């Protein structure tokens, strides 16, 4: 008995759907990936130097501690309400006799940002336009 040999047909694998899936995954990962870019604008921040500026003797020093308490020239303000701070600063200005002395604001690093803004607002209402923020010298290297 003679058997016929069957012709073998080549089996083909259709890769079209596999390529579509790979492209869809590629697009998905490209869209959802976040890059480590902190800001869109490139700005240069001011730096502090080791040289201390000559400080006048008749300056108004405002210290804000970690709990948000205010101290004017070393004396604690009764409470941290803006009205009380306004009255205490105006009384201190009257005692100093100088209408617009320079104001130095020293705030603890952990203080609420609102306490500093309130102090700056009250200083502006009192007409103090010459003020500075006290900082400490950083030992970290600035990021480039």
TrEMBL record:
Broad class of where this protein is predominantly found: membrane
InterPro entries hit by this protein: ExbD
GO CC annotation terms, alphabetical: plasma membrane
GO BP term, pick one: protein transport
Membrane topology label: Single-pass membrane protein; Single-pass type II membrane protein
PANTHER family tied to this protein: BIOPOLYMER TRANSPORT PROTEIN EXBD-RELATED, EXBD MEMBRANE COMPONENT OF PMF-DRIVEN MACROMOLECULE IMPORT SYSTEM
Record-given protein name: Biopolymer transporter ExbD
Native source species: Thiothrix subterranea
């Amino acid at each position: 008995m003679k058997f016929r040999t069957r012709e073998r047909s080549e089996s083909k694998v259709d890769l079209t759907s596999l390529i579509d899936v790979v492209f869809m995954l590629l697009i998905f990962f490209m869209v959802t990936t976040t890059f480590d870019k902190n800001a869109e604008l490139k700005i240069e921040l001011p730096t502090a130097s080791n040289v201390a500026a000559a400080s006048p003797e008749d300056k108004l020093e405002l210290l804000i501690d970690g709990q948000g308490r205010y101290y004017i020239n070393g004396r604690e303000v009764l409470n941290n309400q803006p009205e009380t701070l306004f009255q205490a600063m105006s009384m201190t200005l009257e005692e100093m006799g100088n209408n617009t002395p320079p104001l130095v604001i020293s705030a603890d690093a952990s203080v609420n940002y609102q306490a500093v803004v309130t102090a700056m607002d009250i200083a502006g209402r009192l007409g103090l336009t010459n003020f500075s923020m006290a900082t400490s010298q950083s030992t970290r290297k600035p990021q480039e």
